[in-house]
Amino acid sequence: RNSISPRPSLWSVTSPESRDLQNHKPMDLYYHPISPPCWSVLLLGRELNLTFNLKVIDNSVQGAARETFVKFNPQHQVPTLVDGDFAIGESRAILSYLMDAHAGSDDHPLYPRAPKSRALIQHRLNFDLGMLYRRAYDYFSPIWRSGSIGTDADREKLREALGFLEEYLARSEYAAGDRLTIADLALVASVSFMDVCRFEELASYPKVSTWYERCREELKGYQEAVADQFADARAFIEQFK
To answer: What biological-process terms (Gene Ontology) are attached (predicted)?
Structure first.
């Protein structure tokens, strides 16, 4: 199968002048441009005016480059972030780390320090990891193994997860309250994955649909990090059908 052509290696999220004011060097981000979990990290990078040195990982990366990547993440998974002598995988853990390490000393609305607010954000991140994205992946990933989507039971599980998200969004405008947080970044990447896969039943969840469009409009990096990847992602999927 053909791999997707990588984007330029430096994700410049702010002007050279403002980058000079930053006290941190660009961090290495091992990623793939059509990986939904990677999208959430890129979105946060844009929101925080960070710079990532992008290192594309796909099946063509072998030898010393692959060994270096596996040293940082024995699970062979993207995204993996390397910040100096510290490496961490799992996109939602990366989101939390970036907020704690690079969002500044002030209380940041994307990840408030209030215990109840932070607990709710962590709940939604874990909901995404263990249910929404997991069920979307379980339903759509058989395409690149067998050429067809998952079973009716898999679809119903995904619908159930979307129903839970619909309920959460009935309580507040955003996933974890009345302001955008890193929980929304993770969840919007998962819903974008469903959009890429043309999951028409998304329209059956009006609050999810409204929230999704709001996030697409409000997130500074959505067009470049996510929407611009839709064509490549769909082409990747189509080759397996």
So the answer is: glutathione metabolic process
Given CATH 3.40.50.1820, say whether it is the number of domain 10-102: no
Fold of 115-238: Glutathione S-transferase Yfyf (Class Pi); Chain A, domain 2 (1.20.1050)
CA distances from 141 to 97, 148, 229 (A): 28, 9, 18
Active site residues: 35
Note the pTM of the prediction, 2 decimals: 0.89
CATH 3.40.30.10, the chain: domain bounds: 10-102
Q: Mind listing the pLDDT tens digit for each residue in 145-175? A: 888 999 999 999 999 999 999 999 999 999 9
Phi, psi of 15 (to 5 degrees): -70, 155
